[in-house]
Backbone:
């Protein structure tokens, strides 16, 4: 069954920045995102401190956070100790962001340090796809969860990767290697490192979900505008 169709625009601001507790990008990335609330997952606050950045909120089980280092810098009511071990710090922050009315969210430090943390973050990401507009930033690239059909402006020769979550059936236009009603699945076949050969791409989903990777558009967030599917590329 065909999905709703949207045009992806990069013309809005992020509502908040989530920083997870692993390597974070250079200070220049935060400068592009200035003025946007920063939420640090537990020990990510210390990584931000090394960049002379004080987060607006610190959230997590606080097992790797030294509160004494932040006395006088951030009020205690902005440090949320949530010890529940049934959810990781990333999920705790996403719930907080949702309850705060923040929808357009950029995620930094997604890799999570240890491999199992990364896969746990990946699972949490997919859990919130239908609730929030999430975007991963990593090394000048965006990772955007997609469960709808879309058209999106691209640069000529921009690298586009389509990674199934865990499977997807789709067709495409505007890519060097077109997919014609084909099935992708983890452990079977992926759509990594394709290339845009037109100033826009079209992806029609009939089943499943995917992660779409493209070049970043900092400081702008991806936003969706409902459109008819008919489009000339």
Residues:
């Amino acid at each position: 069954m065909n999905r709703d169709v949207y045009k992806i625009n990069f013309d809005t601001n992020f509502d908040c920045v989530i920083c997870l507790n692993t390597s974070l990008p250079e200070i220049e990335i935060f400068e592009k995102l200035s003025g946007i609330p920063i939420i640090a997952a537990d020990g990510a606050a210390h990584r931000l401190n090394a960049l002379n950045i004080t987060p607006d909120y610190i959230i997590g089980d606080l097992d790797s956070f030294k509160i004494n280092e932040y006395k006088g810098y951030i009020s205690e009511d902005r440090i949320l100790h949530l010890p529940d071990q049934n959810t990781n710090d990333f999920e705790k922050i996403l719930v907080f962001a949702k309850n705060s009315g923040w929808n357009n969210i950029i995620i930094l430090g997604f890799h999570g340090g240890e491999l199992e943390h990364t896969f746990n973050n990946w699972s949490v990401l997919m859990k919130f796809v239908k609730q929030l507009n999430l975007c991963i930033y990593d090394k000048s690239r965006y990772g955007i969860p997609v469960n709808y059909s879309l058209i999106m402006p691209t640069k000529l020769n921009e690298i586009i990767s389509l990674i199934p979550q865990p499977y997807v059936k789709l067709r495409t236009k505007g890519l060097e290697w077109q997919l014609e009603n084909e099935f992708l699945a983890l452990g079977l076949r992926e759509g990594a490192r394709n290339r845009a050969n037109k100033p826009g791409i079209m992806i029609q989903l009939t089943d499943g979900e995917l992660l779409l990777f493209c070049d970043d558009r900092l400081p702008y967030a991806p936003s969706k505008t409902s459109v008819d599917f008919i489009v000339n590329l």
Remarks:
- The longest strand covers residues 200-215.
- The mean pLDDT is 90.
- The chain has two domains: 14-139, 143-215.
